[in-house]
Amino acid sequence: xxxxxxxxxxxxxxxxxxxLLILYLVFMTVLLAFGAGxxxxxxxxxxIGLVQYFFxxxxxxxxxxARIIAEDxxxxxxxxxxxxxxxxxxxMPKIAIMQSPVPNAFATGRSPKHAxxxxxxxxxxxxxxxxxxxxxAHELSHVKNRxxxxxxxxxxxxxxxxxxxxxxxxxxxxxxxxxxNGGAGIIIWIVSIIVYAVSTLLILxxxxxxxxxxxxGSALITKNPHALISALNKISGRxxxxxxxxxxxxxxxxxxxxxxxxxxxxIMELFSTHPPLEKRxxxxxxxxxxxxxx
Length: 294
Prior knowledge:
By secondary structure, the protein is mainly alpha-helical. The protein has helices at residues 7-34, 39-64, 75-88, 121-126, 129-144, 147-154, 156-173, 178-181, 183-222, 225-239, 244-250, 277-291; strands at residues 67-68, 94-98, 105-108, 116-120.
């Protein structure tokens, strides 16, 4: 079966992106109308966004402690990724290993030519060959779909709103210029709070859609959706017995993981970047039916 789009999923992705664009245009209109001085913050957000985009691979590797490995260190893993890249028509990415009892995997990098695919040593022990292939194919699907670019662009407006909220707070705290701006400053602050809340919800929805798309991509690359279903069940089951301290150490990278490592003591559980496991399995079963021609 060819790399075929799920047009329902694609429509939801584009609709979410359109809503973010509309929100951005409305927000920029408010800034122009009530506070042109905030363009310095916009430019700063652009700069931060560019740093995130161009250096995302290094930043994620640094925060997770993952290490780029040579081919002779893990030859089987290299051969597996190489085979999957041929199936997916992708260039060979760098491969990294992360020492952690949390069984997981992630992909990062601004483009297919600058990608890194990483997995923990524990996931390699937990999964069998087909299941590990399915997980790696999921991560390669993120690369093929250019999800780092998608999420960087999507988070731009939330970043601007957050910086304006912080600027207003510290300016009010230390007696800045917001009192001089009067009602205009208050309006910008309130609008920033609303924009941040709405854009965050839209970004989370977009992230969940990208996970569905990567699951679908894995099934199409491997022609074995059941292997990913089995892998997701195993990872989820193991996550329940991993020590809370171990999950807390890697929790900042949850948006990148195939299954988030929630420690149970943060607000992150209330705003998931991933769909519920049962919905992911239902989505994969739908792809399996497509592959069988039903």
